[in-house]
Design the sequence.
């Protein structure tokens, strides 16, 4: 049943795309306006759905998801004409007279596979890019956030042009069916294991792919900083982002043995201000998404190598799938918690002798989606930016770079490939077609056979753009 | 040999990890070395190309060595600029802050090149980009052009820093061994079949790939043009480009039934001007690379639905692996010559009733690497550019977009993913890392729990630049 649906859906989208419908500026605007209407008129339903799926606090959903989507729509609406305009480029002597431009065109019919932790944002944001670039698009929301998936299907089904924009719900079976089709681009947000499956499926059709994955995002904490603000920003990026279940949450901290106790105290103090003495009772923390992840996180905490290193938190409520903000101090490199992406409310602190040692420790792992450094030391900042490779880097902040639309958002190595946000979303779903225009003038007979040394000499000189050489060749000197 | 691939990858990883390839000075030294070896050894390179492809000296210099020198010179001139971080404006969300996009190398990359332009910007262009971007690089030249492969190995081995730049010769066995290693990027030039194998191998390591493939690049010839110039430019792009064995060669022509005979006459006339009455004797035409391709092309020509439609040429010399410039008029739609990339000196002309019909015909096939139009009709030109999707396009000429470094060179769909040339080569081998810098000021309490409605309103207003909203939220209006 699902196989027929998927194939038929894709066929319909291909027909729509071939008709040229999605390429017009007016169509793209109409769809972006429709998406904006959805977020403006249905904010409460979205907040409720996300709360049902994740127990996410309204503030996080409103600000991190709904507001971000609204901003993305508004930016695209405002900038679309400019984005769609061909970019003129300078051409040289060899093709004189000529003009060159780079023309953005849609790729065709694209697939967006979204994930569960920002089930509204990560579904809709790429769709904005796909539509802005003139493509037809299928959105496959995550089944791990079923209420939001159903709501997306309903709202996009109501407001958008379903001959070109479809939501296909489902799990492994439906995703496999989707991946068997030919797409002009696939965007996948999730983990490295499934990413490899997506790439292997895409390989059969030579389909280009964007992968937004994760990794262990480190936060290095130097001494001589404003520790209170640092602690608040770390907490905000960790537990204030879906309780640590975020691809760019600080995964672990690196600081000096000397400074570590101060860091722990500062975090503990601010955590209490934010979530009270009994965080399990706070309404301002997402729960763990499901029992599978809850068990996974418990196992990380109860690992005998680290269970004795818990210096804050550790409380859990299995019935309500809640785990309190938990800090572990001086965990060993070979513990479980230091060898997989945590994606939850556990924050290990690794201590080093000198703060500079932290860079080597970071580079020994796979390249993360983000890396953070809290310092006032200019040299340390420069060294960090220069030597730590990550999708993105933020100095004296965590996670917030996500909201700067002038910055490309994406990974490198194990944390992904390609990027999006703002204009980068438009570019991600576009082909940049080179166009060179000439007239029938500017003929250079030296270009044509029969070949002769003087022709060779002249062309060589033309390539170099060296006027003297050109004259030499022309006049036979 | 297999151990060889692993050893090579390991050596290069060590060199990269040691930071060898990152300094500006190292990159410049390697680009200068490449420039030196190309200019000093032009003679040997021309000889190797003569041996592998019977390529005329003129083409070997103009299409290959001079292109490499130019690319090196451009990179040397622009490297400082390319390496500079790009400043990005930040918004109220992170105020006060500064941001930039920093280009960093990916690490250790693999370039698999092809046989038709074995010493050109096709093969060395990616190497130039990889080095300019600060990577360590392995070049695997094509075994189908063995003299050049061997020369590349010798010259690069002599002139380049072999701790970080290596040539690995070989064929399927060696390529497979290389593909099993983990690379930070793979750049492949060749065909779609092997392209799929490369993508599947890359999928295992989440390695991003640039694919430069091919396709059937069409030329649409309108009436009311300067037919003589058009014919010369088509001949130059087809037979003047390695006897049609070029990824962007005009593969087939589309013109009106009415105009076809004029076109054939013009082509016939100019082909004789260029190559004489007996083109098989001309020294200005490359041979077919080997007997396998020779036989493949003869099969296309001798196909019973095609052989009677030859209007020009058709002569062949199996011993010398030569096929004369051949034009076929109105081969059937389902003939093999109209359904695979020709990659040789055969040019089918397809006729249509109205010239506009050509656009639909082209769009019914896979997206080619290039598409060409000869026309003075403004409307037709605009329609062509908007409706035909191809890697790149030229109006009133062929192949020339390759020499413009400000234009990205690459395919779309079946013709490939990613692009290079000029700055795009540097970008192809770089990770564009987003960097956000903040101080410890500008902390907004509304960001932190305990959450409240006024905080949501405040944040939304602040980040939309809605000052009234901000005041409202602050004062509870």
Sequence:
């Amino acid at each position: 049943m699902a196989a027929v649906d998927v194939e038929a859906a894709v066929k319909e989208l291909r027909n729509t795309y071939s008709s040229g419908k999605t390429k017009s500026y007016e169509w793209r605007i109409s769809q972006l306006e429709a998406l904006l209407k959805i977020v403006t008129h249905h904010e409460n339903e979205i907040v409720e759905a996300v709360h049902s799926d994740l127990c996410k606090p309204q503030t996080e959903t409103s600000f991190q998801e709904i507001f971000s989507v609204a901003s993305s729509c508004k930016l695209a609406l405002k900038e679309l004409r400019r984005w769609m305009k061909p970019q003129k480029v300078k051409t040289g002597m060899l093709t004189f007279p000529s003009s060159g431009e780079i023309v953005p065109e849609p790729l065709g019919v694209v697939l967006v596979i979204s994930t569960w932790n920002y089930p509204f944002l990560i579904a809709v944001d790429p769709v904005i890019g796909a539509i802005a670039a003139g493509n037809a698009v299928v959105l496959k929301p995550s089944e791990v956030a079923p209420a939001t998936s159903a709501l997306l299907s309903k709202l996009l089904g109501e407001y958008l042009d379903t001959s070109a924009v479809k939501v296909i719900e489902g799990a492994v079976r439906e995703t496999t069916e989707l991946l068997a089709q030919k797409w002009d681009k696939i965007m996948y947000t999730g983990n490295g294991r499934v990413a490899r499956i997506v790439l292997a499926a895409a390989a059969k059709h030579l389909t280009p792919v964007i992968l937004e994955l994760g990794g262990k995002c480190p936060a290095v904490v130097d001494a001589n900083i404003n520790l209170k603000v640092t602690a608040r920003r770390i907490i905000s990026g960790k537990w204030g982002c879906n309780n640590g279940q975020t691809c760019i949450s600080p995964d672990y901290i690196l600081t000096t043995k000397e400074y570590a106790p101060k860091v722990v105290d500062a975090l503990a103090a601010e955590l209490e201000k934010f979530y009270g003495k009994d965080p399990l009772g706070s309404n301002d923390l997402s729960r763990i998404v499901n029992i599978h992840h809850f068990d996974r996180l418990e196992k990380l905490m109860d690992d005998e190598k680290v269970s004795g290193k818990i210096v804050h938190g550790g409380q859990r409520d299995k019935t309500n799938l809640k785990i309190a903000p938990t800090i572990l101090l001086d965990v060993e490199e070979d513990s479980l918690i230091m060898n997989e992406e945590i994606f939850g409310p556990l924050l290990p602190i690794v201590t080093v002798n000198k703060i500079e040692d932290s860079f080597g420790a970071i580079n020994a792992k796979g390249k993360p989606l983000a890396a953070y450094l809290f310092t006032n030391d200019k040299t340390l900042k420069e060294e960090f930016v220069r030597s730590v490779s990550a999708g993105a880097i933020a100095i004296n902040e965590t996670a917030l770079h996500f909201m700067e639309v002038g910055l490309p958002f994406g990974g490198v190595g194990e944390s992904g490939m390609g990027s999006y946000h703002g204009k980068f979303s438009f570019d991600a779903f576009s082909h940049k077609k080179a166009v060179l225009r000439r007239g029938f003038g500017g003929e250079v007979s030296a270009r044509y056979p029969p070949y002769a040394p003087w022709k060779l000499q002249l062309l060589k000189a033309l390539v170099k753009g060296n006027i003297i050489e050109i004259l030499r060749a022309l006049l036979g000197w | 040999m297999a151990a060889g691939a692993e050893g090579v990858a390991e050596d290069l990883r060590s060199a990269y990890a040691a930071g060898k390839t990152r300094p500006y000075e190292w990159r410049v030294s390697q680009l200068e070395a490449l420039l030196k070896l190309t200019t000093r050894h032009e003679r040997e390179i021309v000889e190797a190309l003569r041996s592998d492809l019977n390529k005329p000296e003129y083409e070997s210099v103009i299409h290959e060595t001079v292109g490499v020198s130019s690319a090196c010179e451009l990179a040397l001139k622009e490297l400082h600029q390319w390496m500079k971080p790009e400043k990005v404006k930040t918004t109220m969300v992170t105020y006060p802050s500064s941001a930039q996009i920093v280009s960093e190398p990916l690490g250790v990359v693999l370039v698999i090149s092809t046989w038709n332009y074995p010493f050109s910007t096709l093969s060395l262009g990616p190497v130039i980009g990889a080095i300019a971007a600060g990577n360590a690089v392995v070049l695997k030249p094509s075994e189908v052009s063995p003299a050049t492969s061997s020369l590349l190995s010798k010259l690069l081995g002599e002139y380049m820093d072999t701790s970080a730049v290596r040539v690995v010769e070989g064929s399927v066995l060696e390529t497979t061994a290389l593909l099993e290693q983990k690379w930070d990027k793979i750049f492949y030039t060749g065909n779609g079949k092997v392209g799929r194998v490369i993508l599947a191998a890359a999928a295992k390591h989440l390695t991003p790939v640039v694919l430069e493939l091919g396709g059937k690049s069409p030329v649409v010839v309108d009436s009311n043009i300067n037919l003589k110039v058009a014919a010369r430019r088509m001949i130059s792009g087809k037979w003047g480009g390695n006897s049609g064995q070029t990824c962007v060669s005009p593969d087939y022509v589309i013109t009106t039934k009415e105009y076809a005979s004029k076109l054939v006459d013009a082509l016939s006339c100019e082909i004789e001007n260029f190559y004489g009455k007996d083109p098989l004797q001309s020294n200005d035409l490359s041979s077919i690379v080997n007997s396998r391709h020779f036989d493949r092309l003869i099969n296309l020509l001798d196909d019973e639905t095609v052989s009677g439609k030859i209007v020009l040429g058709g002569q062949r010399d199996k011993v010398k692996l030569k096929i004369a410039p051949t034009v076929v008029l109105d081969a059937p739609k389902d003939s093999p010559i109209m359904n695979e990339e020709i990659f040789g000196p055969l040019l089918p002309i397809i006729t249509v009733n109205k010239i506009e019909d050509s656009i639909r015909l082209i769009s019914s096939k896979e997206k080619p690497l290039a598409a060409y139009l000869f026309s003075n009709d403004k409307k037709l030109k605009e329609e062509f550019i908007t409706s035909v999707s191809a890697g790149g396009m030229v109006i009133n000429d062929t192949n020339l977009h390759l020499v413009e470094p400000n234009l990205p060179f690459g395919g779309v769909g079946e013709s490939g993913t990613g692009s290079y040339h000029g700055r795009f080569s540097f970008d192809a081998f770089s990770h564009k890392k987003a960097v956000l810098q903040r101080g410890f000021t500008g902390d907004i309490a509304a960001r932190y729990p305990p959450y409240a409605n006024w905080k949501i309103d405040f944040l939304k207003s602040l980040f939309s630049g809605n000052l009234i909203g901000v005041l409202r939220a602050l004062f509870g209006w």
Summary: Chain A touches chain B through 102 residues (CB under 8 Å). Chain A has 16 helices and 18 strands. The radius of gyration of chain A is 26 Å. The mean pLDDT of chain A is 96.
